[in-house]
Amino acid sequence: MNNQKKYTITKEGYEKLLEELQVLKHQFASNELAMSQSFQNASGDGAHDNGEFETLQANEKLLAGQINRLIVKIQNANIIDVPVLEQNK
Known about the structure:
There is one protein chain. The chain is 63% helix and 9% strand. By secondary structure, the chain is mainly alpha-helical. It has a single domain (7-79), classed as Helix Hairpins, CATH 1.10.287. A two-stranded parallel sheet has the order 1-2. α1 packs antiparallel against α2. The mean pLDDT is 86.
């Protein structure tokens, strides 16, 4: 059961969150590809003594955390419609 607190957001704000999620997912996929290449290019068993791989691994954890937080935020969004107010001339 989802015990997260709901919060109010505009449709535009919600769409921005969805866009941000897609960007983070793309960065995550790119990071995974770079990790695979780094692992394959490393000497020995690959992961040991490979600073680049360790950095990419840390970046993957950071991205995964950001993605998870954003998913929770999206799932708990209560989207409202804000009418456009016309200015009196």
